[in-house]
TrEMBL record:
Keywords: Amino-acid biosynthesis, Histidine biosynthesis, Hydrolase. It catalyses: L-histidinol phosphate + H2O = L-histidinol + phosphate. Its EC number is 3.1.3.15. One of its GO terms (biological process) is L-histidine biosynthetic process. GO terms for cellular component: cytoplasm. GO terms for molecular function: histidinol-phosphatase activity. Belongs to the PHP hydrolase family. HisK subfamily. It is an enzyme of class 3 (hydrolase). Residues 10-213 form the PHP domain. Pathway: Amino-acid biosynthesis; L-histidine biosynthesis; L-histidine from 5-phospho-alpha-D-ribose 1-diphosphate: step 8/9. This is Histidinol-phosphatase.
Amino acid sequence: MRKISLHGGHSGQYCDHARDTLADIVAAYHEAGFECIGLTEHMPPFGDSGMYPDEIELGRTTGWMEARFDLYVAEARSLARAYQDRMRILVGMETEWYPGCAMWVRELRQYHALDYVVGSVHHVQGACFDFSKEAYDKVATMCGGTSRMYAAYFDEQFEMLREIKPEVVGHFDLIRLHDPDYLQTITEPEVWKRILRNLEWIRGAGGILDINARALLKGQPEPYVCAPILDAAAKLEIGAAYGDDAHGVADVGYGFGQVEKLLSVRKMMQGPEASSALILGSLCG
């Protein structure tokens, strides 16, 4: 498997829950032998409602975070030039999805001429579910139970896919984050039909699934995407790419071997029939 990470490069300079400098993280990718990486700092929030609790606690403002994102893009492009003969660096961002942000995502993408975006969902019904176990349980209660939260998540993910059209779909099943019974939950008819609908859309759009190893770092038994969904994606010939979702130097390349084995078994990475071939080629050469 080619050493590519299309979801990574969160740094302590430009993300309040990450560590280390962007330059040090990029250097770590190069030292680890990566040939192509995507830097995907989080997009600046659309209004105060899009801010995370830690950002609010630190006294961040939306204007300050927009200015910080500008600095990120400028440094990322400088690093891409510096490494151009050694490693390809793509300058992108990881999106959010909550009410009112669709146009903002499109404006950011166009204004900064980003190479690509990772489309992620961290909110359900406007509330962030992945900041803590307490936040997750609160959103589940708000939705009327875990299964209904899953259904709402995949509905909102579907909206995100259609509105943003991301090249890479970030941690497709992140909603299982604090659900020990996720293998059962995803098979419930109202959940599974939504999963298949979203996968069908990704196939039609030629998108790539992010096989996100950060789940392993956090103690999950398998990466995002879990095996049943990955099998369904493989049958649809949806492409996939490793992502370490690095939040510091120590995370770079985490779980690469495990993901490589997983994708090799399912023949999803670099398969000649994979729908991602053209996108991978255009992004990573």
